Amino acid sequence: MISTGELKKGITIELDGQLYNILDYQHIKMGRGSAQVRMKLRDVRAGHTIERTFQAGDKFRRVRLDHHTVQYLYNDGEMYYFMDTDSFEQHALSRELLGDAVDYLKDNMLLELLTYGDEPIGVELPITVDLEVVETEPGFKGDTATGGSKPAKLDTGLTIQVPLFVNIGDRIRVDTRSGTYIERVTS
Predict the structure, then answer these.
(1) What is the pTM of this model?
(2) I need a labelling partner for 70 at 20 to 30 A (CA). Which of 89, 126, 133, 150 fits?
(3) Three-point CA angle 123, 125, 130, nearest 5°
């Protein structure tokens, strides 16, 4: 059991028989009365997000998830297939279950499969991923790193804001937690 004072982003808790991942939380102290905690939660199985408010000091059952190293193989439009690197067993996860992780998946990528008992419930991405720019406006001489940004479409289909000097064909490093540009990668 964990209390509201021990909350952290990314922890999975059980609430009303459902598994929820904590996306964000805020401690709120009203002028009168006790403090409250407002949490933004993502349903691990269904994928939707909810916001709930609890009294400070409430306790929640923390869920222990097993981690297995898997390799991303392919997708068939609806299902995404992963292979366990130890047992070579294949796991299929739906797009809804993966959520925003589908924007960062590349063939043969290694990541962590999260399971609850025998049920796969999601994947844990590496903190950064190197992706290739496939579509963006051209950069011009004199564009600087601090002079602004432009949208760029990456090889996984994700569109992010990049500095003006980034061009088509460049490989860039993207933060998977926030979906932001970090740096240009030379390979």
Answers:
(1) 0.73
(2) 133
(3) 145
